[in-house]
Amino acid sequence: MINQPSATNVERPTLAFYATLQRAYDHFNATLFDGKLSDCLMTLRSANRVYGYHHAKRFVSPSGDKIDELGLHPGFFTLRPAEAVLSTLVHEMVHHWQEHLGSPSPSNPHNQQWAEKMESLGLQPSHTGLPGGRRTGRTVSHFILPDGKFFVSCKALLETGFSFPWLDRHAPTTPENVAAVQKALEAAGISTELTQPPVLTLPEEKDGSSPVFRPNPTRVSNRVKLVCPDCGAKAWVNRETAIDCGRCRVSMSPPEEKSDSHNDYAGENATVDAINSYRSEQN
User: Helix, strand, coil: what percent of the chain each, to 5?
Assistant: First the structure.
């Protein structure tokens, strides 16, 4: 006979995991937002290369009520310290705050108001996730300020024994890439590490290997997509090729990335560039 879940049996894996997320949401709502945030539906999705995202009115009930989605990428729970994962949760909570209590900009999800709210909570917006990055724009991440409200609130939560009960074994990137970001922050004088990334503390398999699967090496295609800015005609060409639209006689260019959701961008290319810049300054 299959055991039916109950409200008191939080040891069941699904209930335990989502109860942990809800506990964190409620804690930061109380300590950083004065309890003013409405509920949202939290999900775990690993399809996108982002730490997390917020999507307004993503879900609808049978009666027609709509609720926002706050999505988190579980693969990064394994690779990043708990405080970094929780900072992504708060990043998305700021989007939730702006959607209902502020003034969101449809064309710029990370606008000036969003950036100022982040900074007031002790999270510094940056498109690279490192000092010196752009504060606003379509794809913006952040880093934790050691003297900010979030750091104090997060430390208090972690001191209660807070931790995630389950960790995704399929890494979306390598542990070295994530560690490089932390080292770059330390090199810039930003030290906020409260916990170790779980990938470093998980017990090894019987053969001595890590229980975490690394991502397969990605094969870089030599083809790119170009779009006519006037009529929208599309073409796939080699990277070095420049072409004009035969109908409009204007240059075709790569399309701009657009999304209905507001995300905490993993931003590996921008972050790698910033890391290389720090290394050059040190040498």
Answer: 35, 20, 50
